[in-house]
Each structure stands twice: as C-alpha cells, then as structure tokens.
Write a structure and sequence with these properties.
21 helices, 7% strand, alpha/beta, six-stranded mixed beta sheet, 492 residues
C-alpha cells in the first residue's frame, strides 16, 4: 500500500470528531435517499425496471435489472429508487475495510467518512445511476487482478482463480456501464508496460478469462444486433451536435468540476497514488490504476474540449478511472491536515447539496424562477393524477412528452410506460416501447414541463387545446407549473 506523508495526530487523540463527521454525512445521505424523489435520469433508469430486457438504448442493463428488483421488493418511493445504490455503498465500504486486516472500528469509521466526504463518491452511491454498480464490480475486479499481477511480478505461480474471478467481476462491470472497458484496457496496458507480466500473453488462461468476460456482456451485443446497433449510433454521434471545433476552456471546466466534486484533497491523494512510492518496486495496484486512468482521462479531456459535446462530459464519466485508487484512499489522505481538509470540505458541500434538494421550494424562491432540477423534482403524483383525470374526461388514450426526462418522471410515478410517447429528435428508450405509428389518429394528453413550448408539439397533431394547468407544491410553496393540452389526432 502507498504510504502517506501526513503525520498522525498525537497518541490518545479523541475520535469523537471523526465519528461526528461520519455520522452527519451518513445521516445526510439517508435523508436524501428517504425524502427526495428521483431526478430525471434516476427516474429514467428506474422505469427501465418496469420492462426488463437484455440491454437498453442508453446504457448496459444492470441498472435496469437492479431497479426492477428494488421496485418488486419495495414498490415505488424515494427509498426504493435509491436502495440499490445504498446497498452498493455498504458493499464497497465493507470490502475496502476487509483489505485492512488489523483495522479496528475507528478505521472502519474513518474509511466511511473519507468515502462519504468525496462528494462524487457520495452522490454516485446515493443516486440511481449505473455508476454505483460500476464502482462495486470494478473494485472487485481490480482486487482480483492485482493479486494475479503481484504473484507473477514476484515470480510466483499465477493464481488463475483470481484471473477468472476478476474476469467475472469485469463482465458484471461491463453490464453496468460501457466505460468498464477502460479497466480491461488498463489491464492489457499494464501487462505490456511491466516486463515480468508479458509472459501472461502466452498463457491460454488469459484468453479464457477474456472469453468469460465477453460471454457475460453478450446481452448488450445481442440487444444491439436486434436493434441495428442503436446504442452505438446514439453514443457514436446522435447525442452530440453535428459539428463544432475544439476549445481548451471547456477542458479546463471539466478538470475544475472533477476537483470540486472529488474534493481537492482527494485529487492530491490520487496524484500521490499515481506517482507511486519513491525508491520502491512498482506497485501493481498503482500500475493498474495508472494505465486505467490515463487513457480514459485523456479521452474525456479531448471529448470535453469538443464543442459538439459541450456541457455533456461530466466527472462521473471518469468513475472507472479512480476505482483502483479506492483501496489506497484512506492511507494516502492520511490522518493529518489533508484528512481534516477533506472531511470539512465534504461535510460543507454535502450539507448544502442535501438541503438544496430536500428544501426545494426555498431554492426556488431564492432563485425567483425554476432552477431546472430541484423545483421539478417533487409533485409528480400530482401531475399524474391531473393528466389521468383529463384523459378520462376527454377520452384521450396516450400521453406525449417533449423528452425522456419528463416522460420518465411521469412514468415512474404512474408505474407504467403504456401509451407514452416522446417527440425529441434525439432517440430514447421510450421509442423502443411505444411505436408512434401505433398511435396514429388517437387523441393524447400533452404534458408540458416548465419551459416546454406547445409549438414543438403542434406538427404532431391536427389541433391542440389547452387544459387546466397543474402547479406542484411543497410545504405550501409553489414549485413548478406543468401545462396540459389535449392533442387531437396524432399524426406521428
């Protein structure tokens, strides 16, 4: 393990502050998970669980499968949406703690506090995004691969069981998010860079392990073959603007976002990790971490600087890149000033973010107008009830939305995707569930989110009639006004 340059506090120093910070961060996490309904992407992935299938347009299927299981077990609520991520968080902390054989209860608390004080790690193990699954399975794969590499580098007999186990976990990581390929690439580059490891290229076991991983991710391939490689088309260009040059300022924005959301102390510790210890044999954990992060980091930097992807590239796209750092995280952040900086920073930022979303109407009032996310998080049961009542009154038999994000929140609260259509020019999963051609001639309720314009819907109908709007509220405060229209005669 890489050692830290931080000095521990004096012997006998109290652990009360550490326990307090860890407890506060955990309470904030649970409050958010229990209170705040899903945001647009969370609802989108959770709705996938209503229709389990081999894969989905936007991502590999694991987030849909776990969402479906959670809904089956607990119904629909903020907790049911966030439950898979909370389970992932528990598994991650337990696995990391078990890597420290002599660790006691205070070390376990320190590990949880350091993990939760990184806003990005905290967020990704609270929200219903694919990343919490990627972290779990990527971490388990990393640990198995490192054991193999350390044995080979030490001229010991290769523990092939670790290779196969790593391939298994890597396959599950690939079923969680496509970026898991960066870990596979990192393993290959590590074998190439470290001379003692190159012998593995001449062992059939490596290729058997690779085949195992490919078999595990085959549902993604099969779904794409069936759907004319729709995922490749989406991520290869459909989600991006048609043209645009390159601007280094956008890359700088991306780097600063990574520092803010990982925490400055986390980034300092990770740089130490990637440098490795001075005057010591190379650590296989460091080598694998280095060759996993560098390729995906360079690719994301280049993508973030392209105007066609402006505003889309986000820090969580790098998730797999810092997974190999997690086993060394506590040691490298240490017990001195860097840990105090990290814990203080995380506590302040996570308190602000949690209160911002839990107390959405106050953020709305202060901002004067809707902020585009917090103000439209609550009240979807209200919208569903109003839209369904208008459908009964008018005889409409479909629901139409401008984009997936409003359709997903509606469908999650409604518990059904039946007769739901989106009109965005960018394809989404709803297009594979409800064919617009099957609704030809039917009347529909149009649900316009704040900011949506009726003229975007007009070309799809013979006539539009505005119905009574619905204003969502929380604590008696207005949040957002959703406009309802009756669309006569869907034209497609």
């Amino acid at each position: 393990m890489v050692s830290s340059s931080n000095h521990p506090p004096p012997e006998g120093a109290t652990h009360r502050g550490l326990w307090l910070v860890a407890g506060l961060l955990l309470v904030l996490k649970l409050i958010y998970a229990l209170v705040v309904p899903p945001n647009s992407d969370e609802a989108y992935y959770f709705v996938w669980g209503l229709v389990p299938q081999a894969s989905y347009l936007d991502h590999a299927p694991m987030v849909g499968w776990t969402s479906g299981l959670s809904r089956l077990l607990t119904g629909f609520s903020p907790l049911s949406v966030h439950l898979p991520a909370l389970v992932s968080f528990s598994v991650i902390v337990v696995v990391l703690h078990r890597l420290r054989p002599s660790a006691g209860i205070h070390d376990f608390v320190a590990l949880g506090a350091v993990f939760l004080a990184s806003p990005l790690l905290n967020i990704l193990t609270t929200l219903n995004y694919p990343d919490h699954l990627l972290i779990v399975f990527g971490l388990l794969a990393t640990l198995r691969f490192v054991r193999l590499l350390e044995a080979v580098a030490s001229d010991l007999a290769p523990p092939w069981g670790n290779l196969y186990a790593g391939a298994f976990w890597l396959g599950l990581a690939g079923l969680s998010k496509y970026s898991a390929v960066a870990l596979a690439l990192g393993l290959v580059l590590t074998l190439l860079v470290v001379p003692k490891l190159r012998v593995l290229f001449f062992r059939v076991q490596l290729y058997i392990a690779g085949a195992l991983t490919l078999v595990l991710v085959s549902p993604v391939l099969l779904w794409n073959i069936e759907h004319h490689f729709a995922s490749v088309a989406l991520h290869g260009g459909a989600r991006y603007k048609a043209s645009g040059g390159f601007d280094g300022a956008d890359s700088l924005r991306f780097v600063l976002q990574c520092v803010v959301f990982l925490s400055p102390a986390f980034v300092v510790a990770m740089v130490r990790f990637l440098r490795g210890p001075k005057q010591a044999p190379p650590s296989m954990l460091v080598e694998l971490g280095r060759w996993t992060l560098f390729p995906i980091g360079l690719f994301m930097l280049a993508l973030s600087s392209w105007a066609g992807a402006r505003g889309q590239v986000a820090p969580h796209w790098l998730t797999i890149g810092f997974v190999p750092f997690l086993p060394a995280m506590v040691d490298l952040i240490g017990r001195g000033w860097l840990r105090r900086l990290h814990l203080g920073y995380g506590l302040v930022l996570m308190t602000a973010l949690t209160l911002y979303y839990v107390l959405a109407p106050f953020s709305y009032t202060w901002a004067v107008k809707s902020d585009g996310e917090a103000a439209v998080t609550f009240g979807h049961a209200q919208v569903v009830a109003a839209a369904e009542a208008r459908a009964v009154e008018t005889g409409a038999t479909a629901y139409v939305f401008k984009s997936y994000w409003s359709a997903a929140k509606f469908s999650a609260a409604r518990g059904s995707i039946a007769d739901t259509v989106t009109i965005s020019p960018i394809p989404d999963q709803f297009r594979f569930w409800t064919s617009p051609t099957l609704l030809l001639g039917r009347d529909a309720i149009l649900v316009l989110a704040p900011g949506d314009r009726p003229d975007a819907f007009a070309p799809h109908f013979w006539a539009l009639t505005e119905l009574e709007p619905i204003t969502t509220t929380r604590f008696g405060q207005p949040l957002a006004t959703w406009r309802l229209f009756l669309g006569k005669g869907w034209k497609g």
